[in-house]
Design goal:
943 residues, alpha+beta, 13 helices, 23% helix
Length: 943
């Protein structure tokens, strides 16, 4: 009987679970940000969560203390390399507990955390294998709870007090005014004045582990593991029923928390998380199927921005409860990719690649399939109270869950009202265009427009019946419709702008626009040519183009989608100028189909955007976020090819010249899935202008020159810019050889060098001057010597001339003497022949005596020799010394040859014939042993 009752209860619970799940299928859920272990590079399990005043979030992780600042993760190993089970931020300290160890972390100047142990003070009092599973704070006390005891630490006196229950502790809890704990006997105690006071041992709590205790007006609200909530008032327990009781009973609650608005977040072991209202209604039930990373919720924490953090058995999730953006994800795959949406008669219709679906817009009901619409839906259009569906099969009219096919000749891209013809609709089809007409209050196909057979995915008509068509692979066409809308003529294909992938064409603010990768172009109505619109084209700057689809909503806003933003333009009512608005939601997050983006205005401020697995909605008026502060989280420096070294982020930096590679990390601790913080930075001393906006939270500057710098960073969220600018000043020192001291030394050295150089130059030039003087003096002396030599030469020449002259005179004198002797000899001979010997005897005797005295060859020679030696520096003596064998006649011949007399002139002087002179000359050569090639006269002249 007991088994049967148990089975029935389980069956009922299962049935309710199935029904509840079906009901929730179409629920719009808040965004969920998922972080897996590979993202944060730590262990899978996260046992407790806390947050500091800077909005940084901390996790008690299997691998240590995990920190997340919104941009970067940091893991700090536990002091004894064991699992950190608990974490609690109290003031400026982050307290943690692990295996036989607890203490706190404080942030150093470089932004890193440093651990200080508290348990070492009472190490001898800690039990073996004791682990600290919870940390609470109350006024000045910090409570560390293990499964054995509770340690109360007074932060003012640094004194510990230990609460040692009679049995082991299951868990501890804190309300605004009290600290509670439950033992394994399931008794609930309160710590009062450092001792345990029994609060309740009610039998209802027996075998019911308490998950959390909350203070309420009536007393306490106790949340149990399997049996839901109980109110404890004056010692009495009363059940507080919720819509999730039966479902929770089938699972196990591991963690729970009362959030800021009074609602409850309930984490289970196998069924995800429930968000219950204070009245016990189920607001959300989020499981792994609906977006969680895991169904086991080990810890729950609500941060200052009302985000709900879940420490899971495998990863970390952040649910943006207050996000203006809600999403619906079809995990079953039945819905498919959403291509169009519309509100019609209180129902939300979704056109997908699977067909057309609808549900009650105001109620959380299931989506229902519209019969007959299986296949690709391209567009939804309401006109004259009728809902039209552009479909791969043609055109349908929709009424509730019924459809009526009114055109089937070709697939229909879109529909548009003919200007000033409410009873006519133009259709863009796979093959050209066609017309629908309202006849007898029924819409029917009237005709296909002839003269144009290209696919008409995007088209615009004008009041003058001109039609502009954008074809993705052929570009833009223009043609003229006749007055009956049956025929097109004057087809014109635009050469510019060019065709483009995902290009779009639309009419906005009475102008026709064409968008593709090179920009957005507006039609000039006068020239009929497209001209680039710089304001709209700015959307695609910095390689932001992803799609050129142009969407105009009911409020006359122009919407465009780019890689990192959703952009919309509004018209200024005073001057018709366009105002640009940006929502920083990247296409990678929105998960939309490129080229088929769709956004629909559901109400004045609520919009829906279709995605590949559902849709998300957002309230445009709530996209303004409270001002968050941007902060510099880390500054790292390194030398060339060196390791990164963290520097102080609270004090101005001073780095050596080779520590000129600097990396700045900064963050805005925002944890909204669809809100991406963007940053702008400026390094004064290196840049003149702010950088472009970027979502990258780090920047590196390499090889900075010595000097003073000031780094500034600011950020924006969606359209709101943070109110502060984070600033960090630093100096890169000059190398030692460029310091002021070195420059002074260099200056002194240069002055000293200049002095010595100047001195050296002075000495050099003095030496050069002296050298020049000496050289000039030498040159003068040389010149004087040359002049003297020249003068001497002239004198020598003159002397030589004089010698020659004297020699000539000597020769002439000698010739005269010789002639005289010859004459006297002839006279003597004539006297000897005279016959009158008697009369002339006395005369002859006198003349003969006189002639004999004057005619003497030897005497004449001696006179000549003395005169010759006097004139020629003892030439004959030199010849005699050189050649001792020479006879006086040889010397005489030498003297005559020295006078350069010819053999003919010499012969009478020697009283011999010319032939005899030649023989004498030959013999003289022999005696002198002259070579054959040496002339005798030349040799004698050279002596």
């Amino acid at each position: 009987m007991t088994f049967k009752k148990s089975f029935n209860n389980r069956f009922i619970s299962l049935a309710i679970l199935i029904l509840f799940t079906n009901f929730m299928v179409a629920q719009d859920l808040p965004p969920i940000v998922k972080y897996n272990s590979t993202t944060y590079n730590a262990g899978n399990q996260n046992w407790m969560i806390s947050q500091d005043k800077n909005h940084f979030v901390y996790f008690a992780n299997n691998e240590g203390l995990l920190e997340f600042n919104g941009s970067n993760w940091a893991l700090y190993q536990s002091p004894n390399e064991t699992i950190i089970r608990s974490v609690k931020v109290i003031g400026d300290k982050i307290y943690t507990g692990c295996y036989m160890e607890f203490g706190y972390w404080v942030r150093e100047k470089n932004g890193r955390l440093k651990y200080t142990s508290l348990s070492h003070k009472i190490k001898s009092k800690i039990n073996v294998d004791e682990q600290f599973w919870n940390i609470l704070n109350y006024d000045q006390w910090v409570i560390f709870q293990s499964l054995d005891r509770i340690y109360i630490y007074d932060t003012k006196t640094s004194v510990f007090k230990i609460v040692n229950p009679n049995s082991r502790i299951l868990k501890s809890f804190k309300t605004e005014s009290s600290i509670y704990y439950q033992t394994v006997n399931f008794d609930l105690f309160e710590i009062e004045n450092g001792t345990s006071k029994l609060v309740s041992n009610n039998s209802i709590l027996k075998n019911n582990k308490i998950v959390n205790v909350f203070a309420i007006d009536e007393g306490l609200l106790i949340h149990t593991q399997f049996d839901g909530f109980y109110k404890l008032t004056n010692g009495n327990l009363v059940k507080f029923n919720t819509e999730a009781d039966s479902e929770i009973a089938a699972s196990s609650v591991y963690s729970s928390q009362m959030i800021a608005n009074g609602n409850f977040a309930v984490g289970t072991i196998s069924n995800g998380v429930f968000i219950l209202t204070k009245e016990g209604k189920v607001k959300y039930h989020i499981t792994q199927r609906k977006g969680l990373s895991n169904n086991t919720v080990l810890s729950i924490y609500e941060d200052t921005d009302n985000n709900l953090w879940l420490g899971l058995d495998n990863g970390i999730n952040c649910i943006n409860l207050k996000s203006p953006i809600k999403s619906f994800s079809d995990d079953s795959g039945n819905l498919g990719t959403v291509y169009a949406s519309i509100i019609y008669k209180g129902f939300l219709y979704l056109g997908t690649n699977q067909g057309l679906f609808y549900k009650d817009y105001l109620n959380e009901s299931q989506f229902k399939f519209v019969k007959g619409t299986k296949g690709q839906v391209w567009s939804l259009f309401v006109h004259d109270g009728v809902l039209f569906c552009g479909h791969d099969s043609g055109t349908f009219i929709i009424e509730n869950d019924n459809s009526k096919l009114i055109f089937s000749q070709s697939g229909t891209w879109k529909l548009e009202v003919v200007p000033n013809k409410k009873n006519l609709l133009l259709q863009g089809n796979y093959y050209g265009m066609s017309v629908l007409e309202k006849v007898n209050n029924q819409w029917v196909f009237r005709n296909k427009i002839s003269g144009f057979n290209y696919s008409s995915k995007y088209f615009v008509t004008t009041k003058s019946n001109e039609v502009y068509v954008s074809h993705e692979y052929k570009g833009i066409f223009r043609f003229q419709l006749d007055s009956q809308y049956r025929k097109g003529s004057g087809l014109y294909a635009y050469k510019y702008p060019y065709k483009g992938k995902n290009a779009g064409l639309s009419k906005f603010n009475n102008s026709i626009y064409y968008a593709y990768k090179d920009g957005i172009f507006r039609l000039n109505q006068k020239t009929k040519q497209f001209e680039k619109d710089n304001i709209l084209s700015s959307v695609f700057d910095n390689n932001e183009y992803s799609s050129g689809k142009l969407i105009i909503d009911n409020s006359n806003k122009l919407w465009l989608f780019s890689k990192n933003y959703i952009n919309y333009f509004t018209v200024n009512k005073l001057n018709s100028e366009l105002k640009k608005n940006v929502i920083s939601i990247p296409s990678s997050i929105t998960n939309t189909m490129l080229g088929y983006e769709n956004i629909t205005q559901l109400s004045n401020s609520v919009y829906i955007i279709g995605t590949t697995d559902g849709y998300y909605t957002f309230n445009i008026d709530e996209l303004n976020f409270k001002n968050n502060h941007v902060a510099i989280s880390n500054i790292s420096i390194n030398k060339l090819n060196g390791h990164l070294i963290s520097s102080s982020i609270t004090e101005s930096g001073s780095f050596s010249h080779d520590e000129n590679n600097i990396t700045f990390s900064y963050t805005v601790p925002i944890y909204n899935k669809y809100v991406i913080a963007e940053y702008q930075y400026l390094l004064e001393g290196f840049q003149d202008q702010w950088s472009d906006w970027s979502s990258k939270p780090t920047i590196n500057f390499k090889n900075l020159s010595p000097g003073d710098y000031k780094f500034k960073v600011r950020s924006k969220l969606v359209n709101s810019q943070t109110e502060n600018v984070a600033v960090y000043s630093f100096t890169i020192a000059k190398p030692w050889y460029s310091t002021n001291f070195a420059i002074i030394i260099y200056f002194l050295l240069i002055c000293l060098l200049a002095y010595y150089i100047n001195k050296a130059y002075v000495n050099y030039y003095s030496q050069q001057k002296q050298k020049l003087i000496d050289e000039n003096n030498l040159l003068l002396e040389i010149k004087e010597l040359e002049n003297e030599q020249q003068l001497m030469k002239l004198r020598n020449e003159q002397l030589s001339l004089d010698v020659n002259e004297k020699s000539r005179e000597l020769a002439l004198s000698t010739m005269s003497l010789i002639k005289k002797d010859e004459l006297l000899a002839l006279i003597r001979e004539d006297l000897k022949k005279s016959s009158d010997e008697a009369s002339s005897r006395s005369v002859k005797s006198i003349i003969s005596t006189t002639i004999n005295k004057n005619v003497s060859a030897d005497k004449a020679w001696n006179v000549f020799k003395e005169a010759f030696d006097s004139a020629d520096n003892d030439f004959l003596k030199k010849v005699k010394q050189a050649y001792p064998t020479l006879t006086p006649n040889d010397l005489r011949l030498c003297a005559y040859l020295r006078l350069n007399l010819s053999s003919k002139e010499i012969a009478p002087l020697l009283n011999i014939s010319v032939r005899s002179v030649e023989i004498k000359r030959y013999r003289l050569r022999k005696k002198m042993d002259l070579p054959h090639e040496t002339g005798l006269v030349e040799y004698i002249l050279s002596i």
